[in-house]
Amino acid sequence: MSPVRLLDHWSAPDGAGAPIACLATTFTFDADFFAQDCLARFLSLSTVAGEGDPISSVAAVLEEEDRLSEAQVTVLVDRSSPAEKRNLRWDVLPVAAPGGLLHAKVAVLLWERHGRVILGSANLTAAGYRRQVELALTVELADGCRVPRPVLDELVDELRHLADLTPGAPTTGPKGRAIATLDLLAERIARLDPPARTGGEVRLAVASARPGLSPLSRLGDVWRGALPLEATVLSPFWDDTVPAPAVDAVRRLLLRGWPNCVTLSGSSPAETRKRHHSV
Questions:
Q1: Residue 269 lies in a domain
Q2: What is the pLDDT of residue 141?
Q3: Most buried among 64, 120, 256, 267, by the most CB within 10 A?
Q4: What pTM did the predictor assign?
Q5: Distance of alpha carbon 159 from alpha carbon 22, whole angstroms
Q6: Domains in the chain: how many in total?
Q7: In a domain? residue 199
Q8: Of 198, 274, 201, 196, residue with least CA distance to 240
Q9: What is the C-alpha separation between 62 and 46, in angstroms, rounded?
Q10: What's the pLDDT tens digit per position in 19-62?
Q11: What CA–CA distance (Å, rounded) separates 129 from 108?
Q12: Checking DSSP bridges between strand 106-111 and strand 261-265, what pairing results, if any?
């Protein structure tokens, strides 16, 4: 199987039809990258403004305007992200997460006859999609989708929670359009009739994180077999002081308390360190 670039998942598969709606979430946001790379693929634009001669650029703008007149596009960003220029035909909504930050990276892409959800670690920036090491999972909302209905419904509920944290009325304006996209997503899922529960070797759960809610609390929904005795944690950041809530949360999952050695891997070899604790 040939590797697929993360940006390629923004392109419609054969027979998907015209773009209908897109809703994406991100912590940091690069509006130019989103428009020229992500959105251009989602809309199946033949050219991108600024990449050719002046006549081609004008044609690209007109093509983009035409496609956006038929598709609703919304980006939810953390309220700390600076406002950037954007096309007036798509919405950027700040999310004010109580006691924390919006750090979710999800993209919902809906075409006439196909849907796709991208869940990953990459922000909507050139660095996130091109230069950094990131992980992503795509869910194809099409006949034969094996992701359980409860997992998909939970994902919709979490996105609704994020949309509820944006300013404005829930039935009109940008917020209303974001919620309408999520309504459409829920309708698509209902029409698919996916399995009622996870089966086989692959088990899935939506693990959300916000004040008072740890994603590790969902481990029991997917874990089978004996509890682990050792943990390797990979992250660009970790708690390096005492108390260390995140590290302590991992410790509580282990059968015999803290293992002899836990490796905390940073974003570079120089940041990788080991902690030794008595059992």
A1: yes
A2: 96
A3: 64
A4: 0.85
A5: 13
A6: 2
A7: no
A8: 274
A9: 11
A10: 999 999 999 999 999 999 999 999 988 765 545 555 455 556 66
A11: 16
A12: unpaired
What's the rounded Cα separation, in Å, for the pair 227 and 240? 25
Dihedral sign of CA atoms 129, 123, 212, 100 in order? positive
Distance spanning both ends of the chain, measured CA to CA: 44
Structure tokens at 133: 């090491």
- Tell me the pLDDT tens digit for each residue of 91-137: 999 999 988 899 999 999 999 999 999 999 999 999 999 999 898 99
- DSSP state, residue 88: T
Indicate if 232 and 183 belong to the same structural domain.
Answer: no
Which residues, in sequence order, are bridge partners of residue 94?
77
Same domain membership, residue 244 and residue 186: no
Q: How far apart are CA 132 and CA 140, in angstroms?
A: 25
Is 140 within the bounds of a domain?
Answer: yes
Residues 33, 109 within the same domain: yes
Contact predicate 233/263, CB 8 Å: yes
- CA torsion through residues 166, 168, 170, 171, sign: negative
Its domain, for residue 233, covers 226-276
Q: What is the CATH number of the domain that holds 97?
A: 3.30.870
pLDDT of residue 276: 38
pLDDT at 274: 44
187 with 230, same domain: the answer is no
Rounded-to-integer distance, Cα 14 and Cα 111, Å: 11
- Give the end of a domain, one of 148, 169, 192: 192
Q: What's the angle, vertex CA 204, arms to CA 200 and CA 72, rounded to 5?
A: 130
Residue count of the chain = 279
